[in-house]
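Entry:
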Amino acid sequence: MYLQIDEDSFREVFNKYYDRIYSGFLKKTQSHEIAQDLTQQTFIKFWNYRDSYNADLSTEIQLFRKGKLIFIDWLRKESKERQ
């Protein structure tokens, strides 16, 4: 069964978790600009994949997993650029 996320639900999720997501990225990157970008990417991906979320898992878990994947992708990109 899939979780239904419409615009109103997304707005609620965004308002509830934006600060936590941003703070986590800021702590890890030490950059406001990068933290804002990664936070934005997390919510964009969360919206783009809204039809595929599992109703058995909480929205919070699925959102933070998405953020973790965004961060890992960013780390890989940074590593490649440094080489």
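The chain has a mean pLDDT of 91.
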